[in-house]
Amino acid sequence: MELILRDKKNFFNVSDKVFNCSFNEALIHQVIISHSSSLRQGTKAQKNRSEVSGSGKKPWRQKGTGRARAGSLRSPIWRSGGITFASKPRNFSKKINKKMYRGALRSIFSELIRKNRFFIFEDFFIETPKTQLLVEKLNSIKLYDVLIITAAYDKNLFLASRNLHKVYVKTINFIDPISLIAFENVAITVEAVKKIEKLLL
Fold first, then answer.
1. Is residue 156 exposed (0-12), middle (13-18) or buried (19+ Cβ within 10 Å)?
2. Is pTM, for the whole model, over 0.85?
């Protein structure tokens, strides 16, 4: 499969097995749910009636006071009492096999290409870490709301993009399904494409 390089105007061959797959909506949905769940901290914690501080003594006798019967100061219906269904730390992650995860990424990349939202560059860099330079570069190639994927960490690109709302820079080691579909366009270098092919084949 041949794709045109955005900056060189010549063609670059990519693997059909990675970049020309059918769109599997169910698989992508499952992988995105799994990835979103794994981002949850799950550290919320509350105390139930056995964990809050307070005496175990009966506040007053059962009958004869005119008040409602009470057996504990730590009852959930009392102020400073325990929580009835107390939240506890839990793991929200959902297991996804590597084969399924890679299949979802292949499907997403292929769909981005079909919708003309995937752009390959021979190289993508700026000379100094200036936001204005990156803005000018993106304006010159008419790319907005873009995820930039590089093969290795580029300090200049990373620093220049931090103050831009709809521009994000990631290396291939940190790409994920949510990032790929969250932006209108994806800009990627030739070297990054080659490494992605090795990872997803």
1. middle
2. no
